Amino acid sequence: MSVVAISPRKHPPGRTNRARLVRQRTGPTLTITVDLGSGSTVSPRLTRLLELLGELAESGEGQLSHDLADRAEAEDPQAVRILTGPRTVRQGDRDVPLTRIEYDLLLFLAERPRRVFTRLQLLNSVWGYDHAVARTVDVHVRRLRAKLGADTPLLTTVHGVGYRLADDARVTVER
Fold first, then answer.
1. Which helix (H) or strand (E) holds 157?
2. Of 52, 75, 91, 115, which residue is most buried, by most CB within 10 angstroms?
3. Which residues have C-beta within 8 Å of that of residue 113, sequence separation ≥ 6?
4. Is the dihedral of CA 137, 142, 145, 151 positive or negative?
5. How far apart are CA 32 and CA 69, in angstroms?
6. Cα separation of 27 and 56, whole Å?
7. Beta strand 155-158 with 20-21: parallel, antiparallel or unpaired?
């Protein structure tokens, strides 16, 4: 059994926000108890919950008293990490060599999970123009899937519509 606690965010003393003093939050502490059971595997949904709690802690909205996200990530060598600073992608402990467009496409979909995008929307958002052949997106998705391995269904095809990040995709974006 593990406990994750998020306490209210504390502001530094004297910090102002548009000429008015920002006071310290005095809300209650949220404590979440997660029963991992005796099994050593963590479900994709639980892993996503742990990642979201980690994101809350990183953004300063709270703090974790016990960080389980690192444990879940260390157990899964198929977890994909997108590092935005150096513009690299790591899968487990290996670097995945991606082209600029493949990287931008993966980052775009990872930043917008559970949304389906048409080929034209992807061309406009990732490539920056919409006058290319829509099947260009198909080629880049196929290459991205090949580089990240067939074991991990990362990108889902929504037939007749377009593409989206898979629900159980283990992708984190690190800024």
1. strand 155-158
2. 91
3. 164, 165, 169
4. positive
5. 14
6. 16
7. unpaired
* Rounded Cα gap, residues 68 and 63, in angstroms: 12
Report d(CA 173, CA 64) in Å as an integer. 19
β-pairing verdict for 88-91 and 80-83: antiparallel
Q: For 42-73, what is each residue's pLDDT tens digit?
A: 677 777 887 777 777 777 776 665 544 444 44
Contact 170, 76 (CB under 8 A): yes
Q: What is the pLDDT of residues 125-160, one digit of tens each?
A: 999 887 778 889 999 999 999 999 867 689 999 999
Q: Report helix, strand or coil for 126.
A: helix
pTM over 0.90: no
| Sequential DSSP letters for 107-122 | HHHHHSTT--EEHHHH
Which single residue is written with the structure tokens 């007749």? Answer: 160
Element (H, E) at 80: strand 80-83
Give the residues across from 157 on adjacent strands: 163
